[in-house]
TrEMBL record:
Keyword RNA-binding: no
Record's keyword terms, sorted: Oxidoreductase, Peroxidase
GO molecular function, one term: peroxiredoxin activity
Species for this entry: Amycolatopsis coloradensis
InterPro entries assigned: AhpD-like, AhpD_core
Name of the protein this chain belongs to: Alkylhydroperoxidase
Gene3D superfamilies reported in the protein's UniProt record: AhpD-like
Superkingdom of the source species: Bacteria
Length: 318
């Protein structure tokens, strides 16, 4: 865990979240407080990509359960390989914030050359491409799923860098090195510790069958997203468009979404397929409060992540 002064500074970074107001650490109660404490204990800091979910406590808990049980918890795969997967997915999804965060983590783990290569767009070995046990493959696929989810959320609510805008260019390298040290693995991150934050789910993810803890964590998270108040119209639009989507970027303009009349459905679809195209006008047009916006973005991101991972798993099995 970060020293007290740095921990307090990191808590204030959440003030840079766009469109919603996260619950401040000192005012957190109940489930939000439990997630915040787990974040600082097991992830090293109150990470804004998770904390920004706090207007919806259940979605906050789901995001943390996915992150902890995929990236943080001990398992058959090492943290460095998981960070490589997180970085590669983040690069593919055009999420510079996440590429930078997980580059810091790779630097702290002695994989600076890999981090630099990923940031530069170069080819590096994908840990998911090799021969893996069923347990290891489930762990790394869970990381990919989590970052297909988080990349979308981050693209909507956060800027291009995890460092506060107040940090001058001359201090950025030092600040990144300091933050990277707090992203190192903790020694006692036992698998499954976070899952009881959520009720049991019933959805089975075939890619997770080799790891019962991962399967349980993502089933519970799925129940949360299935339960949020997304209208049938929005669900139908997103499901219909994703059913024929191969994951390719839809284009530089938003002309591809012009045929969607409902503003909430339009926002959900852009989050799912091209979250980097979300802008102030699109969010304002949806007219949602903080909780509703977090839940819509979370649902669209989870739905897209499930689609991307299922297609990838099918291709690898073929």
């Amino acid at each position: 865990m970060a020293p007290a002064l740095i921990r307090l500074a990191l808590r204030r970074v959440s003030r840079e979240v766009r469109y919603v107001r996260p619950v401040p650490f000192g005012r957190a109660t109940g489930l939000v407080r439990d997630v915040y404490r787990g974040l600082e204990r097991d992830f090293g800091m109150l990470a804004p990509p998770v904390a920004l979910h706090s207007p919806s406590p259940a979605v906050l808990a789901a995001s943390w359960v996915m992150l902890r049980e995929s990236l943080v918890a001990a398992g058959d795969t090492g943290r460095a390989d998981r960070e490589v997967v997180a970085s590669l997915v983040s690069r593919a999804n055009s999420c510079p914030y996440c590429v930078e965060v997980h580059g810091m983590a790779l630097d702290s783990l002695g994989r600076s050359s890999v981090a630099s290569a990923i940031a530069a767009g170069e080819t590096v070995p994908d840990p998911l491409a090799g021969a893996l046990s069923a347990t290891a493959r489930a762990e790394l696929t869970a990381v990919a799923f989590t970052f297909h989810y988080l990349n979308r959320v981050v693209s909507v609510f956060l800027g291009p860098s995890p460092l506060p805008s107040s940090v001058p260019d001359s201090a950025r390298a030092r600040a990144k090195a300091v933050l990277g040290r707090f992203l190192r693995p903790v020694e006692d991150a036992s698998p499954g510790v976070s899952v009881d934050l959520l009720p049991p789910g019933s959805r089975d993810f075939s890619w997770a069958s080799g790891n019962p803890v991962v399967a349980d964590a993502f089933s519970r998270a799925s129940l949360v997203f299935d339960s949020v108040g997304i209208s049938p119209v929005v669900r139908d639009v997103v499901f219909r468009h994703l059913s024929t989507w191969d994951g390719s970027p839809p284009g530089l303009s938003r002309a591809w979404v012009d045929g969607v009349d409902d503003p909430v459905a339009r926002l959900a679809l852009v989050v799912a397929k091209a979250p980097y195209q979300v802008d102030d006008a699109l969010v304002a047009g949806a007219g949602l409060g903080d909780r509703e916006l977090v839940e819509l973005v979370g649902w669209a991101s989870f739905t897209a992540a499930a689609h991307r991972v299922s297609r990838t798993s099918i291709r690898k099995a073929a």
